[in-house]
Design brief:
By secondary structure, the protein is an alpha/beta fold. Helix content is about 35%, strand content about 25%. About 35% of the residues are buried.
Amino acid sequence: PVLGHPLRTPDPPWYHLADPSLAGPARVLAALRPLGVAGFDATLLRPASRFGGSALDELAAQAAARLSGTAPKRPLALPGILAFDARPASALAHEDVERQAAVLLPGAQRRIALLDAGIFHGNVAVLTVRLAAPVREERVREALRGAEGVRLARRNEQVGASDVVGEADVVCAGLRVEGQVVSAFVAADGVLVGVVRALADLLGALMAS
């Protein structure tokens, strides 16, 4: 499979979206792949919207309770009390993301931390990529600028999860290059980015058949 594309089985073609938290890092890794990706570490934050519309109401209620100094009610839709907080995702969620990451970049060494966070919409990640050899920062910037669906943030631009909601591009900010290590903050509307990629991939397959 091609890095950044939806997961698929070869016969017959079967399309489904990867976890939205992987959408942003997958596009950045795809852009850096020509530079020789040896491995990566990623800390992925999942928003409350991952758990459905009722989870958003629940998060708002949790925030109101904490601001008023009262104890939030026991969560029903969310995996825990997430207002102004974050916690490790379930072991099952970790396993699923690890499986999908292995398909996106076969053979690469990877370490993934998956967190459920008290944000409403949007996916953010801290991504550290290990290349096969040292590279100049300008070459990394050129690779990201030339990648479809990736926008390199301005040097002083502040980017957060809410800033990318409704945007089809992945935003890569806080870029640092030290020898063969590239680190960045990646923000994306994971659901929208995944849908755009899936539709493009499916249309390509239909035209080729």
